[in-house]
Amino acid sequence: MKPVRADYATAPYAQAFNWNTVMDVLQALVGEENYEWEDRSFYVVVFKSRVPPTTDKSHLGRLDERSHEEAMESGGLLKYWFGTADPDTGRNLATCIWRERTDAKRGGAGEGHRRAMRETIGLYTEWKFEKLRLAIRGGGRDWDIVEWFD
């Protein structure tokens, strides 16, 4: 999973990454393994942010690292991706793809996440949280990303 455009932090999520390549790889794996893919959805969390250039990004990185470890330990985290803040605008994007929403809730409930929330609340000039559904059908032949509704 890689960004396909320089403005990935502000672009619509479905257009920001190389999803077609990801689905091509999935289709190849399904074929090679003769695997019967069952249509399913995955829970996606998107964090769009903006930080001033004076922000201590090393501190943010350490907090993020601990939150990531915690999420991995909780189970169900399939992919974590974190971009680099635009040097001019400070905008960035981080995303997690989870097996399901209950995994994400468990993964974000630990002390590392709570600490990160407490310590970063005043560092961002903008912070947006999105919940999306990545639905994959036909072993990757058909897919979409839409807003997640509980």
Strand numbers in spatial order across the main sheet = 2-3-1-4-5
**Structural class determined from secondary elements:** alpha+beta
As residue ranges, the low-confidence spans are none
Number of distinct beta strands = 5
Number of helices: 5
Q: Quote the distance from N terminus to C terminus.
A: 26 Å
* Strand residue content: 25-35%
Order of helices and strands: HHEHEEHHEE
Shape: globular
In short:
This protein has 150 residues and is of the alpha+beta class. Helices cover 35% and strands 29% of the residues.
Task: Walk me through this protein's architecture.
With 150 residues, the chain is α+β, with helices and mostly antiparallel strands. Helix content is 35%, strand content 29%. The mean pLDDT is 90.
Topology:
Blueprint lengths: L12 H4 L2 H14 L7 E11 L6 H18 L2 E6 L8 E8 L2 H7 L3 H10 L5 E12 L4 E6 L3
Antiparallel strand pairs: 1-3, 1-4, 2-3, 4-5
Helix pairs in contact: 3-4, 3-5
Keywords:
globular, alpha+beta, five-stranded antiparallel sheet, 5 strands, single chain, 150 residues, 5 helices
